Amino acid sequence: xxxxxxxxxxxxxxxxxxxxxNTGSGSPxxxxxxxxxxxxxxxxxxxxxxxxxxxxxxxxxxDPEPEEDRIPTQTKFKFAGEREKDPSxxxxxQTHCDVLIIGGGGVGSSIAYxxxxxxxxxLNVVVVERDDTYAQxxxxxSVGGLCxxxxxxxxxxxxxxxxxxxxxxxxxxxxxxxxxFTPHGHLMLADEExxxxxxxxxxxxxxxxxxxxxxxxxxxAVRFPWLNTKGIVxxxxxxxxxxxxxxxxLLTNFRRSASGYGAHFIxxxxxxxxxxxxxxxxxxxGSDEGSYTGLDKAVIQLADGTRRTCKFALCVIAAGAxxxxxxxxxxxxxxxxxxxVPLPIDERKRYLYAINSLAQSAPGMSMPMTIDPSGIFIRRxxxxxxxxxxxxxxxxxxxxxxxxxxxxxxxxxKLAERVxxxxxARVVDSWAGSYDQNVYDENGIVGAHPYYNNLYIATGFSGHxxxxxxxxxxxxxxxxxxxxxxxxxxxxxxFDRLIVDQPMYELNNVLS
Length: 512
Prior knowledge:
five-stranded mixed barrel
């Protein structure tokens, strides 16, 4: 509205100037321009042309788009807009903090964002991330899927909130890095073994506010002629609030906003904890009954190899695939009593491949992200016959390289069977990374640890953490600031279920 009024004033000034020119003392015979000024049509056209140039200059910047404002891609990634460190500070390391977040990926940065968005200067928040380039992180190998086709109500509600948030992302992040949300839905395919489960899940999803439709094999063939429905009994197609977005852009916005509110991001890794015996706390019940020893400080190894300690009031383990290792540093899984129960997180590797096909029968603009019962997934990537595909949980291990033979051996045959037009697609790029797999029930673990009174956990999302990072970050911030979940009740996803052996199985592995 402000720009509109300024343009109106600009046009009014031009009209006033034109009127003044008509009453000037210049003689009509002085020059040709004077004659043109007396011709009403020529004068009007010239004034309109000048005004349009002024309007264009007002709205269109002359300088090219700054490099740091461009959308991050798989090969180039910067955290533009983060708060600059004060050059007068020789050492900006925080030796004390209110909340220490171990892990600065999508979940950890989301927690920092929600805490600082609510508390601002009321909380000193420190985030420790060992790989601030995110070269091998789960975020980099995320396909950015947003989907409500889960079987558990908690997961459905978290993804519904993500859709709502992304719709108004600019309101939350300000002039954010564009998230590039593409609302073409997900298509979950099921064979005879899983068709009934898909049908039940769809009913729950629609009851909670999602909107999807069930399609038989015949209807799938009509709706998506590029799809081979052999072996497929049923498909669930998301109609609203589903699609995909740029996960690195979301992470950029989390970090930039949290940093702008005052959060501190440290490049390093937690290598140990220091403990403190607290005589005013007594443990009752169980084999660890007696005095209480709590977490006091984290030993952080910085990028230059030096080690520093940070004393914290509260700590959050959100270290993705490394969460189990960090938990063991806190004696979780190697202690006595409740501490005997480990954090069941393993590292799983994921390969992503960018492929290109010029086949006329290849899927077009309306293609949803498609998940096959075999485990492969594929979606469009912009225009020009470009697609991204892969397969979850290809192997265990820490190797950062992509197996050059894996695509031809394991993915191309399944892809050619399901989408024949892409059987001869050309691989143009590939990348690898790891994500956190909860080997207990393949579902996120969110909430307070039952032994430590100052430790929270947010990990184990098994390949769908990016789309749930928004809701998880808000949920953990509620636990820290309000002492309870206020929006989505995630109590059933707490660590306690590991102790009482009540798994929360997620039947639909929805990728993000």
